[in-house]
Amino acid sequence: MNFNEKTLLGKTDLRVGRLGISSSFGAKAAVFEEAFEHGCNYFTWGTFIKGSSPEMMMAIREIIKKGERDELVLALTSYAHSPVLTEKFFKSRLKKLGIERADILNLGFFMKRPQRSIIDGALNMKKKGLVRFIGILSHNRNLFPELHKEGIFDLYHLRYNAAHRGAETDVFPKITGESKPGIVSYTATRWRQLINPKKTPPGEKTPTATDCYRFVLSNPSVDVCMMGVRNRDQLQENLKTLDLGPMSEEELAWMRRVGDYLYKR
What we know:
The chain is an alpha/beta fold. Helix content is 37%, strand content 18%. The chain has nine helices and ten strands. The strands form two sheets. An eight-stranded parallel barrel has the order 3-4-5-6-7-8-9-10, surrounded by five helices. A two-stranded antiparallel sheet has the order 1-2. The mean pLDDT is 95.
């Protein structure tokens, strides 16, 4: 398993870098552009004002300007929970970027199956050519196998880290095969708690953010692990993940011990 090589995102035809990047942590445009240059081409950008970083917008526009649109996998995330508002805000983001179509519409945040009107609205946007693929975000692990039976969604965004490993039994083994959707994980550091020395069990080394990303990507079911960076230093640290590659069994066992300690507390 080589983390520097792009992989297919589930049953889509999108080739993605193993680290994705979110718009929500205040990084400057140059940081997003540098991430893209290092193969981190899965960008998630919010359709509401909150989460729709103008810095990421500038980076995306610059990437497009350079003629590299085909290398960028752009996912727009909507929390509208309304088909009308979802399409309205989605179109406004496309207009700001000067493009007619995004690669992915991610519907979030759902703890149960979205209403039929919301799903139909997303599929209608796909039919209109506004978006190529549909994804969904949830903390409810049991939702994904249910949705998988319907074959509507092309990818799932779910929580997975050393402290929250339920997806290893509740999701990953239940959505295998040729129809497997793309799997994008988030909260690799568990909101930075896994890298907090005060929350590390006695006698154990405190993981770094890189360790957390490596742990997630060492699971072959995960296509992309999302990262959030505030500056170039954090990006440079996170990019070490790609060169270091998968963890050894000893390293994985260490991360599980740290995660179990944190989870129980």
